[in-house]
Amino acid sequence: MGLPTRNEASGEDLYQPQADINVTPLVDVMLVLLVIFMVTAPLLAAGVKVELPQAKSAQPLDPKEPVVVTVGKDGKLSLGTEEISADLLVAAIQAKLGEDRTRVVRLRGDKDAAYGDVVAVMDRLASNGITHIAIVTGPMSRERRQESEAAEAKP
Fold it and tell me: Which CATH number does the domain 54-143 belong to among 3.40.50.300, 3.40.50.150, 3.30.420.270, 1.10.150.120?
């Protein structure tokens, strides 16, 4: 017994094209794109990764385009996201500052960087007329804050 392909009475086909859109492939493509963006978005974050030391008195800085100098734990210098030699640092900062010598240069030093390396950068900048320098720190964790307050409370 076979299935009829035509309606004998009216002469029309039993199987007509379906007018609905199949969205399953569209959803699959969108999920793949979502995963791609979720994986690549953290890679687009600008900056050199350093672990900042913590301070209780850390304050947010001016929201202008910052001039950021980073001293890595290996002593390498970066201006923004680009690595730079110590000899070219002052000229590059002066070019970024232009005529506005009141803009603050933000100095980020890894907490494991040698203290002398950070001081050497500050000295190099100050001796070349760049005196508005801010040392960038991160917020102190709750545990470290409690330890610090306990140490201050002891006579």
Answer: 3.30.420.270
Cβ-Cβ contacts under 8 Å for 61 (sequence gap 6 or more): 104, 106, 134, 136
Q: Cα dist. 126→11, 30, 91, 130, 145 in Å?
A: 94, 53, 13, 5, 32
Which tens digit of pLDDT belongs to each residue from 96-129? 888 877 788 999 988 888 889 999 999 999 998 8
> For 6-58, what is each residue's pLDDT tens digit?
555 555 667 777 778 888 889 999 999 999 988 888 777 666 778 888 888 87
